């Protein structure tokens, strides 16, 4: 674990569940491998994002290896509320990982939705939606061993072909003390098919804890429509925020001010070049021509990117 956390960040006193009691739809940045790291979380918080997740971290590696902790988890005082998402399949391992991050985060989330083959083969991710007793056991262990009542424990799931199975899973999780449930409205086999917002609505109407809708939300208007369709208490966005980190503030495309903010934040936090550049490629997708992309996307150094942004857009280092 790195950043300022070793020196001064202690477990915040605010319960993230309070966000759902504020009377508005909670806007969340999804866990994204390589992308939802400290610098990007800092950026989206400036543009209306209420709650951010870390990328998914394999709990067993995190517990076992100090090197993994340093590379996978960085935060600072302004990085809150923050949820650390873990991939886990053993209750005590998840609990040990949660105990490590508890002083520096507001909650943990158990990934029960990742459909990638490697995760499923290891017993992680979306295969857990078919193991409700194991999910219940993992949640219960964390609840019993972390003595901070404001520390949230949530899960992120995909849906079953038979929505009754998903409702059963959610009811069991609710009974165990899950703080909220994020529902990606596709089943394990689906990738780019339409999201089943009707299924999210059924889940929302079947339980009493907050439900967060996830899947194909690319604009603030999309977020409002999904809330209307599902009744969800929050919305979680991944690719929509990569393309436009200012979308929760109502911008239709990434404003130049947001690009300037990204440059400032990334340089201040020492973001590696590849990550710095990739984020800009996503952000500028809608505002650059094909010819501009051909030039910008093959730049190979931070100084070259900064010179390009200064020359073409007036974005200064």
Number of helices: 14
| Poorly predicted spans | 4-8
Largest sheet: number of strands, sense, barrel closure: 8 strands, parallel, barrel
Tell the overall outline. Answer: globular
Count of extended strands: 11
What is the radius of gyration? 19 Å
Alpha carbon gap, first and last residue: 28 Å
Q: Report strand %.
A: 5-15%
What proportion of the residues is helical, as a percent range? 40-55%
Which sequence of SSEs, written as H and E, runs from N to C?
EEHEEHHEEHEHHEHEHEHEHHHHH
For this structure, the quaternary state is single chain
Mean pLDDT: 95
* Structural class by sheet pairing and helices: alpha/beta
- Strand order, biggest sheet? 2-3-6-7-8-9-10-11
């Amino acid at each position: 674990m790195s950043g300022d956390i070793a020196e001064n960040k202690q477990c915040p006193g605010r319960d993230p569940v309070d966000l759902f009691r504020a009377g508005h739809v909670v806007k969340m940045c999804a866990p994204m491998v390589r992308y939802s790291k400290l610098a990007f979380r800092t950026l989206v918080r400036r543009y209306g994002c209420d709650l951010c997740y870390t990328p998914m971290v394999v709990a067993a590696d995190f517990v076992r290896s100090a090197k993994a902790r340093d590379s996978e988890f960085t935060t600072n005082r302004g990085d809150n509320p923050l949820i650390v998402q873990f991939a886990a399949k053993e209750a005590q391992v998840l609990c040990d990982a949660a105990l490590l991050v508890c002083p520096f985060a507001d909650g943990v989330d158990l990934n029960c939705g990742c459909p990638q083959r490697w995760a499923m083969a290891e017993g992680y991710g979306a295969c857990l939606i078919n193991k409700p007793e194991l999910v219940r056991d993992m949640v219960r262990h964390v609840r019993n061993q972390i003595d901070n009542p404001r520390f949230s424990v949530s899960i992120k799931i995909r849906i079953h072909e038979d929505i009754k199975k998903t409702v059963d899973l959610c009811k069991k999780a609710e009974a165990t003390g899950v703080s909220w449930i994020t529902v990606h409205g596709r089943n394990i086999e689906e990738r780019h098919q339409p999201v089943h917002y009707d299924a999210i609505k059924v889940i929302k109407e079947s339980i009493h804890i907050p439900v967060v809708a996830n899947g194909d939300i690319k604009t603030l208007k999309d977020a409002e429509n999904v809330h209307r369709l599902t009744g969800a208490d929050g919305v979680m966005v991944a690719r929509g925020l990569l393309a436009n980190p200012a979308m929760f503030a109502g911008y239709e495309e990434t404003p130049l001010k947001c690009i300037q903010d990204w440059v400032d934040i990334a340089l201040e936090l020492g973001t590696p070049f590849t990550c710095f550049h990739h984020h800009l490629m996503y952000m500028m997708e809608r505002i650059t021509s094909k010819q501009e992309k051909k030039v910008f996307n093959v730049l190979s150094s931070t100084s070259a990117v900064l010179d390009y942004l200064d020359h073409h857009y007036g974005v200064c280092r």
